[in-house]
Amino acid sequence: MARERIFQRHRHPVKTFSLGLQHVLAMYAGAVVVPLIVSSALGFTQEQLTYLIAIDLLACGVATLLQVWGNKYFGVGLPVMLGCAFQAVSPMIMIGQSSGVSAIYGAIIASGLFVLIFSGIFGKLIRLFPPVVTGSVVTIIGLTLIPVAFNDLGGGQGAEDFGSGVHLLLGFGVLVFIILMTRFTTGFVRSISVLIGLFAGTVAAGFMGEVNFAPIRDASWFHMVQPFYFGKPTFEIVPILTMILVAIVSVAESTGVFMALGKILDKDLTSKDLARGYRAEGLAIVLGGIFNSFPYTTYSQNVGLVQMTRVKTRDVIVVAGGLLIVIGFVPKIAALAQLVPGSVLGGAMVALFGMVVSSGIRIIGTQVDLSRHENLFIIACSVGMGLGVTVVPQLFAGAPAWAQIMLGNGIIAGSFTAIFMNLLFNGLGSKDIAAELAESHTDGMVEASGKSA
After folding, report:
1. What is the largest CA-CA distance in the chain?
2. Angle formed by the axes of helices 131-153 and 13-42, to 10°?
3. So where does this one cross the membrane (predicted)?
């Protein structure tokens, strides 16, 4: 142990840089895919997409440094990376389509302020989100995203050549490639299989004449950060409620990641440590809203990388955060992601969104007592309600405005159904939700590192 600490303290700068770059690569696909999905669904221009990708990468770096810094006001002070909250993708798309882009960023800012203000009492609020609720909500979010993936795989909703052989070949070819990469590779290569799949699919699309190089030609080499790039934010109750729910789910998951990483580092986290972590996450979400990017949360895949490499110092994460900030100031680099055709992205999204669903199922399967009929009933009704409202949103079109707030959005409807039914059947339950989440995350990371060895 002493030898390992000395090695970490005197690590060569080149090695530190390479380890930091490895962390960037591990989270890069998730960080880039989110703006690609959202912009595709909301019809952003090429210029807007370039800005969105660049500012997202920059904000990921800033959010990471805020969390790693660790002072008496904010920051958990652990080697964690922050990236786009993937569970926010579907809500952002729904808000943008129904209320406009300005409402997305108003809701993000409001949800970040909510996390900041209530960071000290989140331990109590999280009791409303035990695994049976969190697992159900994550499952609902994943299921609502699947149609988005298939629309892109087919060439884009409304496209004249939707479902053509070229689109299907590229989309399903990428999906099969990612499956094979996951099956026959291990360790770090497996962790970036989606990124490799997107690259391979884009190269194949290039030979078919399906790649547009205009975004790279048109992008500048440098740009400045521009607050409220998409306009002045607006604050509407339904979008705000939606993003607050997403933020609470993200904080619950981050709690598990913090606690699991604490176990890896042999560090006992206090309630004050967790509160500082929540505060940094809330601040990152507010900054995401101001700079028109995304809400941010702790990325568990990077914690898995800490477990796998056994490099546990913060200097590596600081380098990774710095790299993301530098990349964020260079639109040319951000524009590279725009080379990915929609059908290639769609094939990758089937796997990514399926993983969101399986993440929810994993939470349910590992942390919920499925021998209890009550828990099965909570899952059944909440997932059914969330998916039903998403598929048939016009069902409650004639309801009063106050009822539409609860019933017109699948994620809100499913989440509140899960919360209400859990309180009805289980009460507040265990006080130590964080410990349950930590145990689950630790078991998952140990299992993953064991497979990678």
Report:
1. 69
2. 70
3. 21-43, 49-69, 76-96, 102-121, 128-150, 162-182, 194-217, 237-262, 316-337, 343-364, 376-396, 402-425
